[in-house]
Structures are given as C-alpha cells and as structure tokens.
Specification:
The strands form 2 sheets. A 4-stranded antiparallel beta sheet has the order 4-3-6-7. A 3-stranded antiparallel beta sheet has the order 1-2-5, with no helix packed on it. By secondary structure, it is an alpha+beta fold. The chain contains 4 helices and 7 strands; from the N terminus they run ααααβββββββ. The chain starts with 10 loop residues before the first helix and ends with a strand. The longest helix has 24 residues. A hairpin with a 2-residue loop joins β6 and β7. The protein is 30% helix and 28% strand.
Length: 165
C-alpha cells in the first residue's frame, strides 16, 4: 500500500500554508492598495475648487496685447511700486512720474485663492506719491496688486505679488 498524499483541505496542510506569502498574494495586495490610493485621490480631487480666478477670463485674454503695451510703458519709467505694510495700513509708493493729479485709474487687489476677497480702489496718489489702504479690509495671505492707470493718454499697467502678514 502506498502512503496516501495529503489533500489540499487536510488540516495539516492548511497549517503549513497559513504563513506563506506568495507572488499571487503580493500582486493582489499591490492592486488593492493601488485601487485604494486612486480612490483617495479621486475623492480629494473632486473636493477641490475649480473656479477661475476671474469670471471674465476669456474676454480678458483677448486684451492681452494691449496689456503688454501698458506694461512696457510702466517698465520704461525705470521705477517700481514700493509696498510698505504699516501696523494699521498698507502704503503704496508710486513712481513720481505717474503719481500726480492728472493720473487716473484703478488699483486692484486680487486674492487668487478666494475671489470674494478681491478689492478695487480708485487711483488717488497724494502729494508724496503714495496711497494708503486700511489693513482691516484685508485678510492675511497672498494678493496680486494690479495697477491700471493712465496719464496724458499714456496707459500704464503693473502687477506685483504681495503677502499680507
């Protein structure tokens, strides 16, 4: 008589297979982990804000060439805007060549992360070529300062990033 072979469902064989980690187990575990990771990433991506920074983004893109001319006019001044954050206000010091009574335009503070925090002001430089804005209207964080003004039919445009602390 031949000794009988242990069957797969035999208790002794089951105990010896219990602790084996095979290629099949590894591949299955990797696929399951990958699927969990993809599921988490889809969940996170679906909760992100997908709004544009500006609601009129596409029409503004058509005005890009004019903006480049305005920017080159500002760069030709040779000076930049100086930003001073004081204890209770934000002070902008403009180049003296454009900061007089004949200059008109607007100053915008865009908050890239939240459009509801955007602010717009009229360009009103005082005799010292500066303009102050109360910090009470700002929240801490990153803003994009945009100056769009005109003096004697010469348009100027300048963008500068600033962080309110």
């Amino acid at each position: 008589m031949k000794p009988s072979q242990p069957r797969l469902w035999d208790q002794t064989n089951f105990k010896s297979m219990k602790n084996k980690f095979t290629w099949g187990t590894g591949i299955f575990s990797a696929i399951v982990l990958f699927m969990i990771l993809v599921g988490i990433m889809v969940f996170i991506a679906s909760r992100q804000d997908r709004s544009l920074v500006n609601d009129n983004y596409y029409p503004l893109e058509k005005e890009y060439a004019a903006k480049r001319i305005k920017t080159s006019n500002f760069d030709a001044l040779g000076e930049s805007v100086v930003i001073n954050q004081l204890t209770d206000s934000l002070q902008l010091i403009f180049p003296s060549t454009i900061a007089d009574g004949s200059t008109h335009g607007k100053i915008s503070f865009y908050r890239p992360s939240d459009a509801s925090l955007d602010m717009k002001f009229v360009f009103q430089a005082d005799k010292s070529s500066s303009q102050k804005f109360p910090l009470s209207g700002f929240q801490k964080g990153n803003y994009l300062l945009i100056i769009d003004c005109e003096k004697e039919d010469v348009p100027y445009y300048h963008e500068k990033s600033l962080i309110i602390k």
